[in-house]
Write a structure and sequence with these properties.
With 215 residues, the protein is mainly alpha-helical. It contains nine helices and no strands.
């Protein structure tokens, strides 16, 4: 019998947890939290039902694990701006990547929004899981740009949280609840570009783009 090292065991456990959570995301998205069973999640993961309980003591804990899976989606990380200090490029990438990464899970997020007797503390945890990394990333950027003299002193945590709420409102209206089907429809790039411009410049005229440096 081959004995695994501690690191290998941790890696194997991490892979198994991810396998369970991907299966749970699919089952929850199709059947809802209350309609799904641990047995169905195990079947979707290709595992024995008892194996699920080795990693998650309850269906609620599986759901919380799915929250973390969405929050940690590497697709939500902003692409680096084309040049240092390009605030518009950074903010646009941050919002667009968060919206588009979550839009892939619209059916699951619809479950969180609609399932009437889902515990309120679970909804709050879902929001907090998504809120924290976005705000930390943006707040760090804002503090750097304030120190460089690019932005006036502001409450960076509050501004970052407002930006997150704007992005989530757009996600819910456009991708999850699809409330604006009858309205003129713009694509994500148009919406997100205007959202970023509104945050950075308000309703004042935007500054002209910087001319490329001469060689």
């Amino acid at each position: 019998m081959v004995r695994l090292s501690g690191t290998a065991r941790e890696e194997r456990a991490g892979e198994r947890r991810a396998q369970i959570l991907r299966a749970a995301l699919d089952v929850f998205s199709r059947k809802g939290f209350h309609g799904a069973t641990i047995r169905e999640i195990a079947t979707a993961a290709g595992l024995a039902e008892g194996t699920i309980y080795l990693y998650f003591p309850s269906k609620q804990e599986v759901l919380k694990g799915v929250f973390a899976l969405l929050a940690d989606d590497p697709g939500a990380a902003p692409a680096p701006p084309s040049r240092e200090g390009d605030d518009m490029a950074f903010l646009t990438a941050l919002i667009r990547n968060r919206v588009q990464s979550l839009a892939r899970y619209a059916s699951f997020i619809r479950l969180i929004a609609h399932e009437a007797d889902l515990h309120e503390d679970l909804r709050r945890e879902f929001f907090a899981r998504l809120h924290a990394p976005f705000v930390a990333r943006l707040e760090g950027y804002l503090k750097t740009r304030i120190a460089q003299g690019a932005f006036r002193p502001i409450n960076t945590g509050l501004i970052a949280s407002i930006c997150f709420r704007m992005a989530m409102s757009y996600l819910m209206v456009q991708h999850v609840l699809e409330l604006d089907r009858a309205a003129p429809r713009y694509d994500d790039d148009e919406y997100v570009g205007e959202m970023a411009a509104l945050i950075l410049y308000g309703l004042t005229a935007r500054p002209a783009p910087a001319a490329p440096a001469s060689v």
